[in-house]
Amino acid sequence: MKVGSLTLIVVSALLFGCDGSRDFSDLQAYMDQVRAKPKGSIEPLPKFQPYEAFTYSAASMRNPFQPPVKIDLANRQKGSQRVKPDENRAKQFLEGFNIEVFEMVGTLSDTKGVFALVRGAGGVHRVKVGDYLGRNDGRIVSINEGQIDVVEIVPDGDGGWLERPRSISLKERT
Prior knowledge:
single chain, alpha+beta, 4-stranded antiparallel sheet, 16% helix
């Protein structure tokens, strides 16, 4: 009997809550406004602008994130016609990358000689004296425990070539 009286109380509360005296004038005004709009008033899609391809033409120019090289024209070295890259030599894999991407991470030695380990170009590579490194025909001339000495052949700007020494120091673990 208690369940029946509880049900009666809940039903009575629900009926008294829906007495119909609420004001729905704002809802009625909105519905009238929506009904008053003409049929088919959907705006058309905007015109599609076709993609125009862009060709980057500054790829062969100096990297803007590296400081410019200052050249003293009065004291500039003159190149030699004797020094020039060997065009007939087969290029090695590590010559396809800038020398700046390489860092020395260690050395190895065995009965065949001393080798250096360089990190760059997607991994760690073993190099020896006589190997080439970098895009400017950089030939490794010596390897010791602290650095790799490289001699690059670069143009002097007047039709000659210069030998430019360069070192890659051992990167200490941080």
